[in-house]
Each structure stands twice: as C-alpha cells, then as structure tokens.
Amino acid sequence: MKNTIIPRHMAIILDGNGRWAKEKGLSRSKGHVAGFETLKKIVPYIFNRGVSILSIFAFSTENFKRSEAEVSFLMNLFVNKFRKENKFFVDSNIKVIFSGRIASPLPDNVQETLRELERLTSHNTGGILNVCLNYGGHSEIVDAVKKIVQGGLRVEDIDEEVFEAYLYQRLPAIDFLIRTSGEKRVSNFMLWQLAYAEFYFPEIYFPDFNEEQVDIALEVYAKRNRRFGGIQDETESD
Predict the structure, then answer these.
(1) What secondary structure letter does DSSP report for 222?
(2) Measured distance CA(49)–CA(233) in Å, rounded
(3) Which pTM was predicted?
C-alpha cells in the first residue's frame, strides 16, 4: 500500500503502555518495555513509507510527578535500551536527536546516553527521529524566550522564523499527530510546531500500534484536506 500524500513531519504521543499492561495483568513496567519494542519495529517502517521526520513524546516534564519507582524504571529503560540499540539506529541509517531539558533532573547517565546516541547517528540520512524527553511545550517556548532575551535581540528583529531558531530543535512544522489509546488531547506536546497539524486519535494502546496501524493512519492523513486557514476553492461562498 502506498500513498501519494505522506506527511513530511509526523509525531506520535506514545500513550497507553500502562493500561495495555494492566489489562493483561502485567506491571506497568512491562507495558513500557512492550512500547519500546513497538517503537523499534515501526520507526524504520515509517521512514520507509516516506516520512522524513518522526517526533515522539517519550517522557514529559510532568511525568516526574509519577511514582519514584516508575520514574526510576523509565530512566533505567532509557539508558539500557538506547545503549543496547545504538547499532540498530546506526545500521538503520536513522539520525536520533533529543528535544527537552537535557539536564537535571535527568540523571547524569541518561544525559550521557542521549548525547552519545546523537553523536553516533549524527551523519545518518535515512530519517530523523526526534525523541522528546523531559519535554514540555510551555517549557520549550519559555526557554526560547529566555535565550532571545539573553542574546539581546531587538524587538523589531524578532519574527516567527527567528523565534523558531531558538526552539530545542529547528524542525519543520508537524503535519500529522497521532495519539494512541483514544485520548483526545495534546498534553503540552510541541505546541508551537502543532499549529496546523492534522490530528488522529486511534482507539488502540501504543504497544499494539503495529505496521498495519501505521498504514491505516497514513490513509487517514491522505484523505485530509489541509487548508492552512484558507479555503480549497476560492470561488466558494458562505
């Protein structure tokens, strides 16, 4: 199955790992592991379908409010999986970048692991995987404003293009956002970049979001009529 209309920049809020595990009588940690395995399967498939950039919401600034045990497990999972899968990302020609406050309260070993993966994959050209970790949309905008102020830019020199240069990563706008599990909200995710994105909320937990589900989502996107504030036929009238 191939579409002629493919989003350049797609994003996924990886939701439902814990509920997937609970319904199977498993611990939440098992759900997070299953979610990572799903991610490993679908990322190369998404790039092979023609998507150039994939942003994923892995861990928000607000997720630190979860139990100490779950946060600790997730931090260890990030270290273990990203280190173990270094070769996978290199061999798959995927460039991995990270968006968010890559500093405290992220443990030092997490920060080191992320920077090492960025370094190892920096020359890859088969697609950009933007992992949002310790990320918040409000935080990104506030941090950008702080950088602008610290840089001493004049008010008259600031426009949208200049502002975007101060975000965590300089990426094109998101075309298509998927949030699994059926929840219908963006939860403070890439607010600036989502301004004109198409949204899709499948009723499926992320560990079950396989290649077939990716194809279904891309079919949904291909049927959308993106107008960016205009109308399709300028001769239309109310």
Answers:
(1) H
(2) 30
(3) 0.93
**Beta carbons within 8 Å of 110's beta carbon, 6+ residues apart:** 75, 78, 79
pLDDT string in tens for the chain (238-residue length): 454 699 999 999 999 999 999 999 999 999 999 999 999 999 999 999 999 999 999 999 999 999 999 999 999 999 999 999 999 999 999 999 999 999 999 999 999 999 999 999 999 999 999 999 999 999 999 999 999 999 999 999 999 999 999 999 999 999 999 999 999 999 999 999 999 999 999 999 999 999 999 999 999 999 998 887 766 655 554 4
Options 3, 17, 48, 63, the catalytic residue: 63
List, in order, residues 6 or more apart from 166 with CB less than 8 Å away.
143, 144, 145, 147, 148, 151
Cα 36 to Cα 138: distance, rounded to the nearest angstrom: 26
15 as an active site residue: the answer is yes
DSSP class of residue 37 equals H
Task: Name the catalytic one among 15, 130, 134, 175.
Answer: 15
Residue 178 is inside which H or E element, if any?
A: strand 176-179
Residue 149 φ then ψ, to 5°? -65, -45
221 neighbors 176 (Cβ within 8 angstroms):
yes
**CA nearest to 201, candidates 182, 177, 216:** 182
The one-letter amino acid code at 154 reads: R
